[in-house]
Amino acid sequence: MEKIYLIGFMGAGKSTIGKLLAKKLIYEFIDMDGLFEKRFALTIKDFFENFGESYFRDKERDLLHEVKNMEKVVIATGGGLPVFYDNMDVMKQTGFVVYLKVDGKTLIDRVMAQNEKNKRPLAISNTKKELFSLLKKREPYYLKANITIDCNEKFPQKIVDEIIKEFFCGKTHTKH
Ligand code: S3P
């Protein structure tokens, strides 16, 4: 199982960390949102607008069933992926799942920032308060990951080093 899934709420830094992690491990990096947009030749925002969230979730699941067969890969998932269908079980059966935990205020400020807000349909359709309750609802799913990395006030490289250490130890515990 030479595969790492990065999970966590929007704005947690899954893509940033994923790229650095893949580089260090000499693995391929897959950004599921980016792959999705390429596949459908539509931004996720436009996909939501044209086909709705539930069709997006179906297609997102299909994509997971494609990438789960890859090896030597770091996969940055979309923030909602772990909470739909049996996606979390699929990830845990086929790879090492890392939850990038960031405090709610930081996350929501990041995704609601002027230059970020328009990229994500859920940041457009929800208020800050609604995003907080979405995070609260999702957190129990995220916490099923093999490990949780507290990313608050840490440089990306430090987060990457912690993930690598845990990946090679194969331990299953919460890291603070
Ligand atoms: C979503 C997160 C987004 C993207 C889509 C839905 C979510 O990915 O998949 O907008 O439900 O949290 P990021 O977590 O990469 O922003």
What are its keywords?
176 residues, alpha/beta, 6-stranded parallel beta sheet, 6 strands, 14% strand, globular, disordered C terminus, binds shikimate-3-phosphate
Describe it for me?
The chain has helices at 14-25, 32-40, 44-51, 53-67, 87-94, 104-112, 114-117, 121-125, 128-142, 156-169, and strands at residues 3-7, 28-31, 73-76, 96-101, 147-150, 174-175. With 176 residues, it is an alpha/beta fold. Strands 2-3-1-4-5-6 form a 6-stranded parallel β-sheet, with helices on both faces. The two termini are 25 Å apart. The radius of gyration is 15 Å and the shape is globular. Helix 1 (14-25) crosses helix 10 (156-169), helix 3 crosses helix 4 (53-67) and helix 6 packs across helix 9. The longest helix is centred in the middle third of the chain and has 15 residues, at 53-67. It binds shikimate-3-phosphate (S3P). The site of shikimate-3-phosphate (S3P) has 10 residues, from helix 8. Residues 10, 14, 33, 44, 78-80, 120-122 line the site of shikimate-3-phosphate (S3P).
Count of individual beta strands: 6
Order of helices and strands: EHEHHHEHEHHHHEHE
**Span between termini:** 25 Å
Reading side by side through the largest sheet, how are the strands ordered? 2-3-1-4-5-6
Give the CA-based shape.
Answer: globular
**DSSP strand content:** 5-15%
Attached small molecules: shikimate-3-phosphate
The main sheet comes to:
6 strands, parallel
What Rg do the Cα atoms give?
Answer: 15 Å
What is the number of helices?
10
Assign the structural class, choosing from mainly alpha, mainly beta, alpha/beta, alpha+beta, or little secondary structure.
alpha/beta
Mean pLDDT: 95
Subunit arrangement of the protein: single chain
Percent of residues in helices comes to 55-70%
Parts with pLDDT < 50 across at least 5 consecutive residues: 171-176
